[in-house]
Amino acid sequence: MALPLVRPSPTDQNPTDQNPPLLNRLTVWPFPANRSNMFDLRPVGYVIGLLVTVLGGTMVLPMGMDLLDGNGHWPVFAISSFLTMLSGGLLSIACANRAGAGLSIQQTFLLTTTVWLALPLFGALPFWLGATEARFVDAFFEAMSGLTTTGSTVFYNLEDLPRGLLLWRGLLQWFGGIGIIVVAMVFLPMLKVGGMQIFRTESFETMGKILPRAVEIARSISIIYLGLTVACVLAYYATGMSGFDAVVHALTTLSTGGFSTSDASFAMFSGPAEYVASIFMILASLPFVRYVQFIGGTAKPLFRDTQVRDYLLVIFTLVLVTTAYRMKVNGDFLEHSIREGLFNVTSIISGTGYASVDYQLWGTFPIVLFFLIGLVGGCAGSTCCSIKIFRYQLLFAAIRAQIKKIHSPNGIFTPRYDGRPVAENIISSVMAFFMLFMATLAVLSMLLALTGLDPVTAISGAATALANVGPGLGAEIGPSGNFSGLNDTAKWLLAGGMLIGRLEVMSVYVLFTLNFWRR
Question: What pLDDT does residue 100 have?
Fold first, then answer.
């Protein structure tokens, strides 16, 4: 269904511009035509209601799985689906008289955050009502971890859960993965969040030549996302996974989410499956719009994208370092060192969070390394999370320009990205993002410590929530641990951290500024 999420830009009225850049044609107006409707919540409520209704409809898939298994658990999904679709449907009907209205900047910011609050609330119902018998804080934590593709879990004995619940966990992450791609490519550049506006520059104008509207971006990317998921299912099945395990792990691999069907995570499938997982985690970490361009007959943007090149170079270097360390210090043999290094490096840097081994047993160096690379992330416009590789590229470009200016005070040095000069407002936005991300990490770590958590658990827990990675460090929340033993306050704080990190920090914080609510 095509939703009128944004108004056409006034640049559409230029008859001489037959093919303006995509994000110029879909810019959100900074002020609505009728200022009295600036905070009209009905357009926001209409979209949220539709998405909640769709979420409820997808619950028939795990319900069908439980019906097929005959385990008697299917009524949980029937009830959850009914309540979710009823709530979403009523909200959409109540707001339908504003369904055709465009969204102002304020409404778009509000929609971006409230969607990621509403969907976990309803996505938690099967956990709350189902076989896990989870308290609501645990059910909400699991649903938020799923939809933000974080991958932290509070459930033990996953092998004993009904397969419908395991499928639902995978579906939540899969939906969250495609959702964040659309948000990252359509909304965040227009909202100028954390430097994402750079993807409206001429470096990416080919996007507009391939896809004329945001709805077409979502449709095309969804087809590719689905196609990669099916390919991943077949590849996993070929390595010896059962059909069900292949489906669930394909859902959580392409979303870089990391939920598994076993407490042992990916240790149950060591061997060829680790190579398959590594390949598809990398594919999911690359900009999906480049795949759209590739299929459209334009391969050069994919191979010339500096994000892609640097991201692959970083992974290659880290795997070499990890392999050398494992062979030299741990006495491991070559193939096993390469496989474990490739899998675990890719899993952490992409934010997937699968664990094939407890890498904390490798020594201090790998622990520090994996903590740091979890704060790197993949490419913008992918299912990845964390800071993203392009922000580090812009940061280093700005540092280089400043060093040259210090050396030659009379010279003019402009940071460049992909060979093109970068505007000052983009550099400022990236710097603000880094500062706010690190400040949030520090505050969240202190708040978690105040709940009684030890320093390692508090700091790594805050980092893994904000970066949406999954496992933390320490015996409790490390690769072989679980978040179930944390106190309720810590779980709520971590769930909030997942939301803030998934929406690129500023999208959430802007709602708490006084200027945002001024008419």
Answer: 62
- Say if residues 339 and 275 touch (Cβ distance below 8 Å): yes
Residue 173 CB contacts under 8 Å (≥ 6 apart), including other chains: 146, 147, 149, 151, 251, 252, 255, 257, 258, 259
Using an 8 Å Cβ cutoff, are 128 and 25 in contact? no
Q: H-type helices in 131-213, by residue range?
A: 136-147, 163-182, 188-191, 206-210
Give all strands (DSSP E) within 152-297, no chain letters. Answer: none
d(CA 114, CA 110): 6
Report yes or no: 257 and 352 within 8 Å, Cβ to Cβ.
yes
Helix (H) / strand (E) element for 433: namely: helix 424-450
The helix/strand/coil state of 260 is coil
**Number of neighbours of residue 307 by Cβ within 10 angstroms:** 22
Burial class (CB in 10 A: 0-12, 13-18, 19+), 100: exposed
Could you report the per-residue pLDDT of 394-436, keeping only the tens digit for each? 999 899 888 988 888 887 888 888 778 888 888 888 898 999 9
Cβ pair 384, 256 in contact under 8 A: yes
pTM score of the predicted model: 0.85
Q: Summarize pLDDT for 324-360 with one digit per residue, the tens.
A: 999 999 888 999 999 999 999 999 999 999 988 889 9
